[in-house]
Amino acid sequence: MAEHPGHSGTRDAEPMSGNWNENPPWVVPVPTDEDREFFEGASRGELRIQRCDECGLHQHYPRYLCSHCGSTEVKWVTASGVGTVYSFTVIRQNGVPPFRERLPFVVAAVDLEETGARLVASMPGADPAQVAIGMQVRATFRSVGEGIGLVDFA
Amino acid sequence: MKRNVCVVGVGHADGPYATGLQPNALIAQGFTRALADAGLRKDQVDGLASAGHSGMHEVAVAEYLGIRPAWLDSTSCGGSSFEFHAQHAYRAIEAGDVDVVAICYGSNLLSASGRTLGTGGGGGQRGMQPPGPMKYEFPTGLTLVGAYAMAANRHMHEYGTTPDQLASIAVQMREHASRNTNAMYRTPLTVDDVLESRLVADPLHKLDCCVISDGGVCVILAAEHIAAGLRWSTKPVYVRGGSGGTTHHSVQGMSDMTTTAAVIAGKRAFETAGIVPSDVDVFCSYDSFTYTVLVTLEDLGFAPKGEGGPFVAEGNLRLGGALPTNPDGGGLSCTHPGMRGLFLLAEATRQLRNDAGESQVQGAETAVCNGSGGWLSTQGTVVLGTQSR
Ligand SMILES: [Zn+2]
Question: At B1, is the secondary structure helix, strand, or coil?
């Protein structure tokens, strides 16, 4: 095997496959009072995260308290959607539909420019060979149900 | 006065294939074999620790075994649970709260579920909502293997760690398994074999991932005065210290993917035991993935942060190397029925009893077990030795 298979950055371009609009019930999050703002925000094209009044840091996912300093003065804000890839992987095996039909696909850990908030998200349009740690990415949104959206990056 | 604590009995259930045996039967196999190994009766067991996947798991185990323990520990924090159990039991026996604690585990994962662990879509399964923060990761299609892969990728980015170096860990574990007739896979591997196995989640290949097996094991701890009257009294194995910690649940919460709670757990465990990394003769590492070994051996101080790659590639995990690791072949080649933490304590004991046959690390006096649970989320470190503190 001539190709060195360890690092996705060295692999040939691979077309994305699968239907990203097909979302059976088991992959659709069920919002609660605590996190509905995040999922509803995503369904209308906004990345909603929390900012702490006390320390000024942000967090994802939403919580009753600031996970950084412990203050309970956390408020919803709309993030710019711009972030940096902290790390990523290319999923090549996942036995659960619809993920099985989408293989291979990129999942990244993205640090938002709002300090303190990180999301793990899909990059549905991304060619695995073009994704790199440190690259700037921007949020996109995908509706998966009535008032329920997911945040992706591109 | 504080009492010394010994490992007095070890018993393995059937494995790596145990078709037809339910998890509690595997637990009972390990338990009865550990009692026989120790020379104990079951009514002498006054403490029980176990981790499973349901509430009151350890209570159901006690009933199944027909024991009425006065001390229970059901800490369930993934594969490292059993290092937490050992540390808690060690302190409770030391303090005189309990005399004899059986730590039990059994699983028929392979027979019941097949080889799907780690690639079944993260924390969720079809038809149910995933727990806790997995709610945000499951819809992305991230798998358990993918979470470890993401962490490994960051280590490669920061420190120049290579897939070849990770692969060398799997090669060395297989070399150990080739000497172990109980190991699941025994045919020697090369680095190229690992790199040419299919990618599951970049940069982790199939052979960077642990096996899926059935199995179970029981480890019994007891106060020294009880150990003195038992079967292994002339080759005592002491618990010298332990600690644990957590940094996150799902990988999204792992702010630094190149460092685990083993930094803290290891430091405290080594201090309690009165040892430094260079004292360690045997390292029993939870090798769920090659990267797990690499990152935790750095965190425990066996190699400086970022230098784990060259350290493993030099062959230091071999018998005769600087840090003989998982002489039984580990989770990568020997056995992994879902949670491996208790097997680490069993293997360390076998080594310190000088009872490991062809897998023996010559002159082993100090062993470190480091269990890793979840998505590198929890780390438990236990130090065992042939001498008391
Ligand atoms: Zn704060």
Answer: coil
